[in-house]
Structures are given as structure tokens and as C-alpha cells.
Amino acid sequence: MTSSAKSNLLHFGMLAGLVILFFILPIYHVGVLSRVMVMAIYAMGFNLLFGYTGLLSLGHAMFFAAGMYGFGLAIKFGGFPVPAAFVVGLMSAALLALVVGLLALRTAGVAFMIVTLMFAQTAYLVVLYFGKYTRGDEGFILQQAERSLFGLDLTSETGRYFTAFTLFAVCFIALAKLVQTPFGKRLVAIRENEERARMLGYDAGRYKLYALIVSGTVSGLAGVSYALLFGYIGATFSTVQYSIFPLLWVLLGGAGTTIGPFIGVLFMFYLIDISSGYTNAYMLIAGVVLVLLTVFAPKGIAGTLKARAFPWLP
Amino acid sequence: MEFGPHLMLASLEGAVISAILVLTAMGLSIVFGVMRIVNVAHGEFFMLGAVLAWYITTFLGGHPALGFGVALIVAPLLVGCSAAFADRAILKRINYDPDRTIVATIGMLYIIQQTTLMTFGPEARPVEAPFNHRLSLPWFEFGENGFVMTWPWGLSTTSYKLFVIIAALTVLIALWLFLTRTKIGLIMRATQQDSEMAQAFGVPVGKVYSWVFGLGAGLAALGAVLVVPIQQAHYLMGHDPLLLAFIVVIIGGLGSLPGTVIAALLIGMSDGIISVFFSPTLAKIIATFLVAMVLVFRPQGLLGKTVP
Amino acid sequence: MNILETKGLTKTYGGLKANTDIDFKLTRGKVTALIGPNGAGKSTFVGMVSGRTEATRGSVLFEGEDISHLPAHRRIQLGLAYTFQITSVFRGLSVYENVELAAGRTLADRPSLLKAKVNSVLERVGISDRSNQISGDLSYGHQRILEIAMGLAQDPKLFILDEPTQGLAETEVDAFISLIRSLAGETTILLIEHNMKVVMATADFITVLDQGMVLAEGSPEEIHENAAVQSAYLGTNVDA
User: Fold this and answer.
1) CA within 20 to 30 Å of A283's CA: A21, A289, A311, B148, which one?
2) Which class in CATH covers the domain with range A29-239?
């Protein structure tokens, strides 16, 4: 079987598996998986920039939040129907990514990390400053009626699961295809050796900007999805912690792989789920995992599998 | 209170902020200057200093000045040692690779913060100042009788706050002497200039790095011990100092110590003044956004060398 | 028209003058070698031509057009190819993927043509058998050959090679000489070299740089006889 045939089998197999799981799992785990799939979209968005293009942003929460608030505020204050609000959320994230990209991509390496961190922190503070509309840390809720699409109730566990699944599947396949295109390969080239890529005639600056915009928009899509399906919008999602999470998930699952982000989110969700039963300091687990990963297994789960056993793993 | 005295009060508050900030930021700056790494857990070392000060003063009891004095020495030492240990156990293994170091220090941040949460708890706990006298401050005005001294109500500071400012200055001078006059200081500066060359001359670069990392953490902890009688110890108190220290180091110029001092003064003073006259959130928004812009358009900051 | 011309090209770093007022012409379809002692400013000059280094002063013309202010990637798009003095390939990717990226800039939208091109280039330089190897695992000599392959894959009008034979075994050097000869006429070649055997065997013209300036220009025979060139080289290690 060729590499690409194996990849396709893996990807569709995973999606089929997710569908089947809905019918097998107890309702609690179905709920967890819904959340996992939404956050996996966020992780995949981050992975495009970090895993494939090699740019570490410490401020991705601002894109997630842009999507979330764009959607939420459009519904709450604009009275928009869901599809229109969806678009507003996506456009907010895309626009923010464009502006941030034009500024932040003038720096590289450590400076880029700090600049993205600072922009995200500014975004968080702005959300707090306009607390009159955003309700700050407390946040606000969207009613079930406001979140229905074509009369379908998206708030039942079933509606949630399959909406999350649809959004996840679309992103998953789209991004998997994207990284196989010449565009995707050039991003990898920039990650591997940016100067060489330039000296082959590629406008590295432009590619990085495009990668950032796609990455930011997908992260924004995750934010929109979360607001749509779980009905809560709050400033927590624009804190530094929410910028660290996708890094943690992607590193754990395997940066630069297609299935890595999902695996990483799944693992961490259950790890934290279990440990928060014991202590309210469950982020300790996140800290320990980050240190262990970066010292002993920087490739993460899928990355190590790819290096050791399955070289065709996309 | 009228504007003049109000401004003076805000400036004094700013001076205290600057004092603490300069110590904290100096720690971050030295680590970056010599080791070329960004330590995201720096704020947690700060917090540890305050928390340890609470444990020490509570354990010793007696006169607050006694406990505080011991804490002032022991807490930074303990924090410095744990930092040096973390450097050997973790950072050395990943060879100070920039990406992995950031991730590792983020991990360290959560480990330190959450362990503190589990042991110290989520509440804020006060530490008593060693001495605390309210000092009314005079204000000068031109009146009908010429130059007149008045004592506006509310225009006061405390002896402890003045102590903090003086202490920070003392430590700064001691640090400067240490770096420029002692052999260890010379070794550190040599390693900063050219670590390969230093190694070729027999400098144990690995050990120097552990020392430097410990020194950086110790300075932050010292700043925290000084501020804890004013602020209270809390497991999340490292977050704001980290961001402010980052801002200072970047605007002052990564790797430039004089730049750090000047920037700490600027940032501390303006934070104090803007916070008093406007909203603290707005002050933070401006500062955070500004630092991002500085990095984008003038990455070497005020006085620094080029950013890697 | 000359394919490449520089006028007054100068680079100073602070007080150090790496290149001063270089007027240079490249004849289309010919092989020109750029030689000179270490520190003569050859790599800096070529860096300014390719766009890697920003010139302090002067201009670069490619096919009559002023490209002095174009970024490197734009110059490459116009038909320049460049191999680095210190090998710079995509070490994590396979040999095939490396060449594919080089050829892909123009051929990515025609997959079968792209595939044919990559394979023919690999064949031509003799590393087809290593097509699936990770390039970081190759020997230094093979990585250098890979880099030349990446240049060839772009079908450049002007091919700039910075010390291409350094680190190559004797047989590989001979293969390189044949390769350069086979390109004669279709591609213009600018070669920085220390290996005099290669220079004498391939160059139609030679330009000698010394201390950042042009010392002499001419045919290989003329340069060989030139007394100033000989004295500039005295004391330096030259592979004869």
C-alpha cells in the first residue's frame, strides 16, 4: 500500500472511529469527546504554524478569543443569526491574524514568541477594559434559542457531538490535504531551512504570513465552535494559559503530524480529568508533562511513532 | 489632594515599584545576557521568595524585624539554589535550545506555581514589615508669605517603603561591584561575551550557567521579600512581575544592564503614575502593547545589543 | 548584452572594507571563475550579487535590469541559482524532496513534469540511488552534490557556485568538471574556486580579487602569467 493510501486509511479510519464511539460510549465521555474535538481544531490551527512552519507563537489565545467574542457579541448585541455570527467570528480572527502577522513577522525566534505573547496579553486586557460589553472574567452565556441552526438544537449531547464532529472532520481533512500541497511543503521547507528556501526563490515572508492567517482563522473557528456548542464566552479563554494549552497538546501529540493535535488534546483532557479528582492543582500535571516531553520526547507521541515505526505517518 | 502633592505621592509609589522591578528585571536580564535564554518561570521564583519569607517569619515568630531579616537572606539563597538545581536537571539536558527552553521553563512555571498552591494554599497571606512608621511629607508652595511648607493630609509614605528604595539601590550597587570587580563577575561577563572562547580558556561554562541562573532567581526572590510586607504573599503573584520584568528588559535592551535600570525607572514610574491617575488596566494595556511594538521596530531596545 | 554586470559594487562593515568599487561583467553562456586569496571578498561579492548581502554602494544589473534593490528570492525568480559555501540543504528531508522543492517553484503545478525533472537531475549528478535517503545522513561530499542538483533543477540562466568542490573526493571533482563542461552554452556559470585544477579545466574567463578589489581579469593563460596575481597568492595554500 502506498504512503498516501495508508494516510487516507488512517484519517478516514479515525473519523469513522469517532462516529462509532458516539454509539458506544457512556454519555459523560461523549460530552468529553465533544470538547476534545473542538479543542483539537484549536490545536490543529496552532500545529500548522508551529509544527509545519516552525513558528512558536505564545499568543494564540487571542485568535481563539477573537472567534469566540466575534461570534458571541454578534449574537448578543447584533442579534445576528448563527450563520452570520459564524462568519463574523471567523473574519474577526482572520483580520486579527493579518494585523498581528504584518507586525510580528518582522521578528523571529525568541522575539517572535515575546511579541505574540505581548499582543495576546494586550488583547486580554482589552477584553477586560471593555468589560461593560464583554463581562470580563465572568463572561456571558448564549441562550439555547440563540444558538440553533436551521431549527436544529445544537445543545443536546447528540447535536453537540455531531456538530463538533463535522467541524472537526472538515478541518482535519482540509488541513491534512493542505500540508500535502506545494504550499504545505514550502512551509516545511521554511521550517527546515528558511535561508535555503529564500535562495530557492520562495518569498518566505509571504508564506509565513499566509500560514499565520490560516492558523489564526482555524483557531478562531475553534473559538466560534466553542461558543456555539457550549454557549459560554469568557475572558479566561484569552489568558496566557489558553495560549500555552495548544503548545502543550501539540507537543504531546506530535508537532508536524496530522493526528498529533487530536491525540494530544485527548490525552491531556483525560489526564487533567483524572488528576482534578485528586487536587485542584491539576495544572501541575501540565507542567510536569511539558518538562518531561521537552527533555525526553520532543517529538511527542505521533512524532516518536513516526520516527521509530511508521515513517509514512503524515 | 491637589494635583502637585498627588503627583508626588504617585511618584513615590512609582519609585517603590521601580525599586522592586529593577531587582526582578535585573535577574531576568542577567540570565538572558549570559545564557541567551528566556526564563518564563522567572515570576515564579519571585513568588517563591515571598512565600518562603512568609514561612520563615511565621516559623521564627518573635519580633517581625528578626524574622524579616533572616528571610531577607535565607529566602533568596534557597530560591537561588533551587533554580541552580533546575538548571542542572532540566536546562542543561536540553542544551539551552531556545524552543525547548521556553517550553521547559513554562513547565517549570506550572510546577512551581501549582506545588505552591497545593502546599501554601490559594489565600493571600500577609507578612509583617520589620518596621513601619508613617511619615508625613511636606509640600512646598508659594504663598503671600513667600516659600511655605505645608503638610497636606494624605501625603505620606512609610519608613518601610523608603527602606525598600534604599535597599534596592544598595543591592544594585553591590551587584554592579560584584560583576565588575570580582573574579566571578569577570567570568560571568566573559561567558556572556563569548561562551566558546571562555570555554577555551578553561572557564567551566556549565557551572557558570548554573550560578547565573541561580543569581537571576535569587534577585527576583529578593525583590519579592522586600515587597511582601507591602503586598502579601499569594501563589499567583508571580504573573504581573514577570510581564513587567519582560517589558523592562525588552525596552531597556536584552542583555544591557544599564538599559534595564533606566527602563525599570521609566516603567515603574509611569506604571505608578498612570495607575494612580488613570486605570491600572489601561496602564497595562499601554505598556504591553508598547513593548511589542518596541520589539517589532526597535528590537535592540534603548541600549541593548541585537536580539538573536 | 552581458547577462550580469556590477558597477561600483561596494560593501563596508563599519571600518572594514570587504569589497570596494567592483566593476564586473559576465559573458552569457561562459564559465567565469572568481579566484583570490582568503579574505579577498569573493563570497561577499557574490552575496551582494545574489541578494544575500545588502550592498553599501553600487548596482547590480541582470540582463540589463537593475536588481540592486530586489530581495534575494526575487532575484532567484528572475533566473539566478546559488549554492552556498557551507552546504545548506534541507537536512530533515529526503534527497528527492530537496530537489523537488528546488524544481517545484516553477513546476509544482505540473506534477508529472516535476517528477521527470527531479529524476533527470538526480540522474545527471549521479545520486539517483540515494533518492529516498534523508539528506542530513549523506556524506558531506554527497550533500554538496545535492546542492548542485538543486541549482540545476531550477534551469537557471546564471548559476553561482561558491566553492563547490571543497570537500569532494578526486573522482567527484572530475565528475564536477564534466558536469560544468556539459552545461557550457546553455547556462552562464560564475564559480568561486580555490581548486586551480578545476579553474583551469573549466573557466573561459578568470577574475582575480584581492583585498576586496579586482586585481586582474582575463583568460586562464593571461592570469597564469600575471605577476601581480602570482605575488598575491604567495604564501597561501593553493591546490595546483
Assistant:
1) A21
2) mainly alpha
